[in-house]
Amino acid sequence: MIFHDRNKLETKELVPGISGQLIHTETMSIGYFDIAKGAVLPEHSHIHEQVTSLLEGELEMTVNGETKVMKAGHVATIPPNTAHSAIALTDCKAVDVFNPVREDYK
């Protein structure tokens, strides 16, 4: 399938306060996430390269020990196997792209 309607995609909660819809291709996964103020993404790492684009809100993100407050329009690039975490300072909307596919999110 080439075209998707996000209004018809299942919403999954990844951790309390972070939920979204995912689209998977042969080589990548794209997640459209709503993040509630105060939600915490605990520190973790995975084999996937990740690009996080913040569309709305303020998100404090730590990547490999470096902490930044991301605002709308900011983008974080996270290499594979790199520790990262986040705390939502406000309600946020973000798009994450993962390569390779996040089989664990299917």
Cα-based radius of gyration, to the nearest Å = 13 Å
- Per DSSP, the total helix count is 0
- The 3D shape can be described as globular
Separation of termini? Answer: 16 Å
What is the chain-wise order of helices and strands?
EEEEEEEEEE
Query: Residue-averaged pLDDT, rounded?
Result: 96
Q: Structural class given helices, strands, pairing?
A: mainly beta
Would you kindly provide a written description of the structure presented here, covering whatever features stand out?
It is a single chain. The chain is 0% helix and 57% strand. By secondary structure, it is mainly β. A 6-stranded antiparallel β-sheet has the order 1-2-3-10-5-8, with no helix packed on it. It has a 4-stranded antiparallel β-sheet with strand order 4-9-6-7, with no helix packed on it. The protein starts with 11 loop residues before the first strand and ends in a 7-residue tail after the last strand. 23% of the residues are buried.
Short description:
This protein has strands spanning 12-15, 18-24, 29-35, 40-44, 49-56, 58-63, 66-71, 75-78, 84-88, 92-99. It is mainly β. The strands form two sheets. A six-stranded antiparallel β-sheet has the order 1-2-3-10-5-8, with no helix packed on it.
Q: What is the element layout, followed by pairings?
A:
Elements: E1 12-15, E2 18-24, E3 29-35, E4 40-44, E5 49-56, E6 58-63, E7 66-71, E8 75-78, E9 84-88, E10 92-99
Antiparallel strand pairs: 1-2, 2-3, 3-10, 4-9, 5-8, 5-10, 6-7, 6-9
